[in-house]
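mind reviewing these tokens:
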Amino acid sequence: MPVRLIDFLDLAKLRKYRHGLVPLDTARFLTRGKMLNVSAIFPALDPIQEIATAISEHNGDSLLGQVSLAAGSNVAKLTFLSPEDSPSHLQLEMIEFLITQAGKWGCFSLQAEVHEDSPLIKIFRQEGFSIYAWQRVWKLNGAGTPPVAGIWEKPREEEIINIQSLYSQIVPAMLQSIESIPRKADGLVCKSGEDLQAHISLTVGPAGIWAKPLIHPDADCLPEWMNSLMASISNIRGKPVYLCVRSYQAWLESMLEEQGAMAGERQAVMVRHLTSRKVLELETLKNKKVEPAWAKPATPISHYHHINGDSGGNE
């Protein structure tokens, strides 16, 4: 059978896909936990994002896959594939189907995070994905020297300009198309006087907290700063805190190791750029054969202008 979107009649089959599931959106997996509950599968139950979950069944083999798009983003994310040991032809068909779904949403690109030794890297390359960066997720333990109070604080609204400036200095230009610039002054910041030297964005879920750092390489007292991070997160309630370090900030890893943080496996951040549906629609209109028009007798011919069409952009 061809790949198709899942429906409520497939709910009874979900249990078998819990074994061998491969998370491809690490933040979602670590903060939300269960990937196959009903609210994570059907878009009507999660109004803040688009979700497409698909299933493929052929000659006794089957594969489940999902792609999602957060509200306000133009970068879709592959969420998971299950099981990992499904035949490669099913994996290729599934990824191609999910690429098409993301294109229908008008996305600029599609992202997947894959362990560096996974055979899926080869499959994704066949579908046009490239490695844009590497990342490692560190689980903070809060041990070590006592945290220093007052180092991390919530940013003021007007500090969004400084946060965006820090983003522009740290995130390579090639990655800025897939790593959205901060739009709101949230998370936590650390300053030296009035000089903003670090920003941590936070995603809080029922299973854990995802922290993504932007730290200037010339920042001072980093061990003390990172040790105080867990104490500064409000409503942590015993949840684990995971810090995602991408390859352009790899210098943070030695400091995290010294602080006793637990290192996860290295992952490839793989990206496939898409031609947005909106662009395709505009190009189609632009290239359509224009029917000849006749000026009204009352309209002086010198005032008649033929408009070829105008180009538009995406959100």
Observations:
- DSSP finds eight helices and 13 strands in the chain.
- The chain has two domains: 4-135, 142-260.
- Residues 4-135 form a domain with the Aminopeptidase fold (CATH 3.40.630.30).
